[in-house]
Amino acid sequence: MTTDKPARTLKLTPGAAKKTAPDPFAPRRAPVRPPGPARAKSVSASAPKPPREPSAGFGAKRAGPEGERSERPRYGADRPGSDRPAGPRPTGDRPRSGPGAAPRGDDRGWSERPAPRRADPRDVPHGDRPPRAPSAAPRPVQPHRPDLARVGNVRGEIRLNKRMADLGLCSRREADEWIARGWVLVNGEPAVMGMPVAPDANVEVLPQARHQQAGQVTILLHKPMGYVSGQPEDGHEAAATLIGAPSQWRGDARHPADGRRFAPEHTRGLAPCGRLDIDSVGLLVLTQDGRIARQLIGENSGIEKEYLVRVHYAPNGPHGAGVVTQDVQSVFPAAQLARLRHGLSLDDQPLLPAKVDWMNPEQLCFILKEGKKRQIRRMCEQVGLHVVGLKRIRIGNVVLGNLPVGQWRYLGVGESF
User: Fold this and answer.
1) Are 175 and 161 in contact (CB under 8 A)?
2) pLDDT band at residue 13, thresholds of 50, 70 and 90?
3) Burial of 178 (0-12, 13-18, 19+ CB in 10 A)
4) Which class would CATH give 158-214?
5) Which of 2, 120, 207, 362 lies 20 to 30 Å from 270 when distance is taken between CA atoms?
6) Is 165 exposed, middle or buried (0-12, 13-18, 19+ CB in 10 A)?
7) Are strands 385-395 and 363-368 parallel, antiparallel or unpaired?
């Protein structure tokens, strides 16, 4: 018996055999819920919850059956239904792991005991703390080597700007400006800022630097009383404010300013060379040339400065008894005059020998080679003299002459200190 079964026909869907890999960067779609009736919510979730009573504030007593907080012992035999012994709870009798360990999580129930507090190192007394580890060994102190130059070599090299100043070419600041502009050569090569040079190095200055230096001016001013030599202070103006075209003196027939006229750039960078205090008058030098400044106020300067000083003899102070204002020379001891010439000290430093002589019975002439602050006034106080007038009349070979008070003139080409 044969049964003929109908032949099955396989239907192919276009593109069904070609599957593409899912894109890992494509956004995920939410799962589709299968068709069917919606799942009903549980009674506990759908039923409305009763309103919650407001909780008492922090620290309030819990209400018990009698309206008071129920005190339930946490541990001990006095707790109902407890077979634990009375007294403090033992520690260390329960293993943390193994078959005898206490259940963890929900198996052991809720406990009101707070978590153990971590040990704070500040609670440990100072005596019980472990000692600190020893610190690293201190860095050894390097020995001083005075035989080495400042730049750190044994050939005696010094910085180029100091070398140029020692040679009298210019000041250090001026040397730095020339080096930056490329106007200085060392052994035929352009110099570099801050480079060290040997004592036998050949330092050459280009004509551009000489031309700029020739345009620098030096001014001689007859400073009046009430002006300070340097920066303004205590409400007093600087003497440099007197430099201008109206106050230039043209009456000196010997040095008629060499035909030069005042220009505003002549006031730039003027530096006073030697101070005169507010109450002193006389010759004040202001210059743009670093060579002159170094010559007058440098460490090794030996330029003489001459002063006329009017004094009173006041052995007990200017306001004490026995002040002599007339014919001071006759009452002033000769031994004290010898001390003015040599034998006094200022700021715990002995002064250089000075030339001190009487010009008239009330006036002394001082010739010094140093210029400490208020030096002449402090010298006179040590020998019982009170200075009532001080005027500088000469610096080196340059004299004040007939220059009027408050006026100024240029240093002539043929003049030098």
Assistant:
1) yes
2) low
3) buried
4) alpha beta
5) 207
6) buried
7) unpaired
Of 276, 227, 233, whose CA–CA distance to 400 is shortest? 276
Q: How large is the average pLDDT for residues 331-352?
A: 91
Q: Which one of 120, 277, 279, 289 is the catalytic residue? A: 277
**Average of per-residue pLDDT across 328-344:** 92
277 is catalytic: yes
**Direct distance between the N- and C-terminal alpha carbons of the chain, in angstroms, rounded to an integer:** 151
- Per-domain boundaries in the chain: 158-214, 218-301+402-410, 305-395
Q: How many CA atoms lie within 13 A of 267 on its CB side?
A: 13
| Coil/strand/helix, residue 41 | coil
* Average pLDDT of every residue of the chain: 75
Distance CA 218, CA 137 (A): 59
Q: In what order do the strands lie in the sheet with 189-190?
A: 189-190, 184-186, 203-205
Task: Tell me what percent of the chain is helix, strand and coil, each rounded to the nearest 5.
Answer: 20, 20, 65
Radius of gyration of the chain (CA): 50
Structure tokens at 230: 């340097």
Q: How far is residue 289 CA from its own chain's centroid? A: 30
The pLDDT tens digits for 33-51 are: 666 665 555 555 555 666 6
Q: Within 13 Å of residue 264, how many CA atoms lie on the same side as its CB?
A: 0
pLDDT band at 131, cuts 50/70/90? low
Q: Which contacts of 101-104 are long-range, i.e. CB under 8 A and separated by 24 or more positions?
A: none
Sequence-distant (6+) residues with CB within 8 A of 95 are 101
Placement of tokens 């507010």 in the chain: 278
Is the CATH number of domain 305-395 3.40.50.720? Answer: no
* Domain 305-395 in the same topology as domain 218-301+402-410: yes
User: Cβ distance 383 to 223 under 8 Å?
Assistant: no
Give 344's contacts (C-beta < 8 A, 6+ positions apart): 350, 351, 379, 382, 383
**CATH 3.30.70.580 corresponds to the domain 218-301+402-410:** yes
**pLDDT band, residue 370 (cuts 50/70/90):** confident
Q: Which pTM was predicted? A: 0.58
Q: Is residue 306 within 8 Å of 366, Cβ to Cβ?
A: yes
